[in-house]
Amino acid sequence: MKELFLQRNRFFYTASVLLLGGMLLFQLILERGGESHVESNCFLILYNFTPDLLKTIFDPLRTDWNLYQSRELSYLVDSFDARFIGWSIRHEMAHFYSLSAIAAAVLTLVVQQLGFAYGFPRMNCWLGVFLSAMWQFVPCNFLHQFFRCGKPVTALLITLLLFSLRVLWVNEDKRVRLTAKICAVSAIFLLPCFDRQGLFLLASTTVFTTLAGAFCQEENRKKLLMKTSLYGVGSIAISTVMNVLITPAIVKYLNGYTPSFEYQQMSVLAVFDFRGTIYFLFDNIGFWLFGFDNGGVLVLVALGWMIWLLWRKKSYEALALLVCTIGVLSAMANLMMARHNLLILDRVSHTVYFMPFAAVLIFLMAVMSEYLNWKHTIPILFAAVLVSQSVSTVFDNSDPVHNRFHRHATERIIETLNNKELPSRQQLMPYSAWKLIDAFRGQLTGWEFGPIPIKYPSVPKHNRL
Q1: CB atoms < 10 A from the CB of 425, how many?
Q2: Phi/psi of residue 74, each to 5°?
Q3: What would the pLDDT profile of 205-255 be if each residue is shown by its tens digit?
Q4: Could you tell me if residue 450 is inside a domain?
Q5: How many Å apart are CA 41 and CA 43, to the nearest integer?
Q6: DSSP-based three-state secondary structure for 35
Q7: d(CA 364, CA 236)
Q8: Cα(251)–Cα(258) distance, rounded to whole angstroms?
Q9: Is residue 444 one of the residues assigned to a domain?
Q10: Helix, strand or coil for residue 243?
């Protein structure tokens, strides 16, 4: 076993250089400075031209359009991204790259490769490479522009949690286990801090480990599952107290108002809004793996085939894991669709919202390949086909990921930011980009276009989640 780990470690260095250096640099070159977004332009002004950073971070009226979600840590990271972009603009090197998104992409690949090395010691090395390549070529991973760090960081943290638990499940090396424990506990307590997807995934993991621990017969693994559940409950409890009591009190003290909880109020029936499963989850998976919008049909066929294979091989543990994972992702997609129904549009659903879903699916693919016990060539060839398909999808400018107006407008915005002699009002670009240019040219006085509070219809108390 130790020789296998050493072999995988030697392979990790070469694979990581190729994956992290080559693929990410290739993506960043293709993005040509990132992409400007109408909301991002507002946040760039907010974080660069408001003097009190602490008050700004605890001001959901401006940082989240009055959609209070208690994710202030993500706003802090967003402010660092925005100020780096602001520094670059002032030095005539304008771009819209997000440092946090790039760092999250790099670290996710590192965690995957280390996870394959220490958590899947018998996995063929090339399969690990292709699985990470599949992750890197998820269409939404070609979006490293400044927007919000919540989804990329959540994808990193759920990857860290799942692979750490896997390492603790199979690896007996004390130093490796200590590192995995630290990583798992860190991910558990950080997941709720960046995005509501992270809180949902943590809650689902906690429930799953609790149920699995109740049926597990091996003492050491039972302890692992129950400790994970205990830490998960503690993290959720702290997050709830922060959300309901502490953060609103800080907002009240610093900014003089109590944040609205209206965005967090949802009908319990929203989890059965299967538009999310159909139009978001399966549509995104099909678009990722097969390159066209109706690929969700093929996803259903492949899912049914895998369920049949696992049932036939009597791999009931793997079957339970597969069904539970798809069920959790479906429930999360349904809640997202019920709250933000613009996700039904491809140009919205194929963006960063899908990142945490893809991160979970990469881990699931690795586990399923082990349980199905295929010969090495089959999953490698299958993964290679999917990678090539994903690459061709990225280069297809007709697909919904490529918003042509924003792409061409970004080129004009960057050129105008770098050349103060160019008149912005004569350029075809969003109104928020005009104001962004005005701000960095010293022509914007005060907060001239603050966020507009959004009102949501009231939900009966007996139907609130």
Answers
A1: 8
A2: -70, -35
A3: 999 999 998 888 888 899 999 999 999 999 999 999 999 999 999 999 999
A4: no
A5: 5
A6: coil
A7: 24
A8: 6
A9: no
A10: helix
